[in-house]
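Let us work through a complete example step by step.
Step 1: write down the sequence.
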Amino acid sequence: MYRGRSMTLNFPPFTPWVKRLIIACAAIYFVQRVVLANLAPNIDGYLLDYLALVPLYVVHGFIWQLVTYSFLHASLGHLLVNMLTLWMFGSQEEQDWGSKRFLEFYLFCVVGAGLVTVAVGFTGLFGMRPEVPTVGASGGIYGLLIAFGMLYGDREVFLFPFPFMIKAKYLVGIIIFVVVITTFQPSQGGVANFAHLGGLLFGFLYIKLLPKKGLLSGASERYFSLRNSYYRWKRRRAARKFEVYMREHDRNVTFDEYGNYVPPDEKKKNGGSKSGWVN
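Step 2: predict the structure and record it as tokens.
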């Protein structure tokens, strides 16, 4: 990290969900590639079909693959690069957002990248086929990258082991450029890179369009707001019906605009102002 004329080199902390995601991916890789691959290769192949992202299977009900594919990795190098990036960039975001919103954002990008892969898998572009599996956490990782570039764009990052630093927004811009170029070159892994583009897209949409408190928090607030509006409408409706009923029995009762009963004495005293409680 670089500020002004001073530079400090330190490792980011292992925040709660970053640590759990890394442990989960590493444990699954060990079980799949070391234990099962040597002791039960048939089971290893079955798990790959069952947990990897296969567009043909997803549209036939295997919707859990939109999440589980992100915990599988094709090689040790694939795992190490993804987990290192998750640690370096995800820890800062979890510290600032909190664990709940960080996990929501990460899974949002993972699922979004999966949906893009499923959609493109049926187009036949660049040799893509709906039965080809996709694995890796790159969809979520690229979502974290673009979020870091958008939120901490002027922060300078030391490109270990290269002896120079670069602003985060330029680093993310270079990564996006490389992903776009390689996506449309099948010989360079274009099929898998559609998941990268999906992660970038959904990460951008989350930061730009969704509530700052997070998707679940915003949806929860909206739900309770609608629920309370419905209850207030029911109370006002019941109050109007009760007023009509009482007038038919030669009695006059009054309710305020919120459906709260206004006692006669209070009505005379303050001209029919609101009663003491409002929901």
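Step 3: interpret the result. The mean pLDDT is 81.
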